[in-house]
Amino acid sequence: MGVHPLGVDADELRQRAAGPDVQGQVSALTSVTRGQRLIVRVDRTELSKNIVRGLAAYRELLITHPNGAAR
């Protein structure tokens, strides 16, 4: 979890994602999920972005594509 102002530095986030601690977490998550596909969601905590609506959209995605047809 992180706090990022509007206009995040994409290069910095890519470098951070390549860090050994993050890659260790990726390996652990990959091990736990045993090859299952995951949906990862990143939200702003800003109320006007309507997190609930976004979660409803994910529910709709899972209903309309139960076998993971959407990529």
If you had to describe this structure to a student in words, what would you say it looks like?
The chain is mainly α and 71 residues long. The chain is 51% helix and 0% strand. It has 3 helices and no strands. The longest helix is centred in the middle third of the chain and has 14 residues, at 20-33. The model has no long low-confidence stretch (mean pLDDT 81).
Any low-confidence stretches, pLDDT <50, length ≥5?
A: none
The backbone outline, from C-alpha atoms, is flat
**Number of helical elements:** 3
Largest sheet: none
Order of helices and strands, N to C? HHH
The total count of strands amounts to 0
Briefly note the structural class of the backbone: mainly alpha
Rg: 15 Å
The averaged pLDDT comes out at 81
Q: What keywords describe this structure?
A:
flat; 71 residues
Blueprint (SSEs and pairs):
Layout: H1 10-17, H2 20-33, H3 51-64
Provide a short characterization of the protein structure.
With 71 residues, the protein is mainly α. The chain has helices spanning 10-17, 20-33, 51-64.
